[in-house]
Amino acid sequence: FYGDQSNRSDQRRCKTCDQSIPKVIEKRVKMAVYKETIEVKSHGKTPTYIDITKDVRRVIEESGIQNGICAVISPHTTCSVFFEEFCHDYNEDGDEFLQEDLNNVLAKIIPDHVSKDQYVYPGEEHYKAVESWPNAEDYLPGGDRTALFNGDAHLKSTLLGSSETFEVDNGKLGVGTTGYVYFADFDRTRPRTRKCKIIVLGE
């Protein structure tokens, strides 16, 4: 380029094609960040699916941010956050039909962890590490090593992912009518209280 670029002039021209270069308009936007952590309860024994769509919508509204993105994140290694259609029908366990279908599909490729020889995880060094934790009793009650038979939950979480990102459009969650946000806990070893982080960024 040649010409006086310091004053962002309309007269700048390209050296190669001699075409004029449009004036560059610089717009600086002050971004805001709003964060909230919610708690959910999982029941153990089977995967737990929790509809958190209302919480996500509420946090976006309370943030005051009109346009930007919303990240929904699980900090747990056996949990996932995913976006799916609300299908209206439930099975006898209270799971939506698509969730039952998901369980059936995942069971074919990642069977429930029920024996020590089924998965390489957990290894001896991992057991030793957990046994050294101040709250080891929470993870190995009474020294029961089978309480760590949750390798399937780790793999399912890895496969589905631990977060989702959505558009914030005019202060609302930018999804369709039947698009819902779900928190899933695949760890069947015991009931737990889980955390989910909702972060809104924008203007």
Helix-strand blueprint:
Elements: E1 32-42, E2 48-51, H1 53-63, E3 67-73, E4 79-85, H2 97-109, H3 124-131, H4 136-139, H5 151-160, E5 163-169, E6 172-173, E7 179-185, E8 192-202
Antiparallel strand pairs: 1-8, 2-7, 3-5, 3-8, 4-7, 5-6
Question: Please, could you describe this protein's structure?
Answer:
Strand 5 and strand 6 form a beta hairpin. The protein is elongated and about 75 Å long. The protein is of the alpha+beta class and 203 residues long.
Short structural summary:
This protein has 203 residues and is of the alpha+beta class. The chain has helices spanning 53-63, 97-109, 124-131, 136-139, 151-160; strands spanning 32-42, 48-51, 67-73, 79-85, 163-169, 172-173, 179-185, 192-202.
What's the helix count?
A: 5
Calculate the mean pLDDT score and round it. 92
Task: Give the terminus-to-terminus CA distance.
Answer: 34 Å
Cα-atom Rg, whole angstroms?
24 Å
Helix content: 10-25%
User: What is the strand arrangement across the widest sheet?
Assistant: 1-8-3-5-6
Strand content: 25-35%
Which key terms come to mind for this protein?
203 residues; alpha+beta; five-stranded antiparallel β-sheet; 5 helices; 8 strands; 23% helix; disordered N terminus
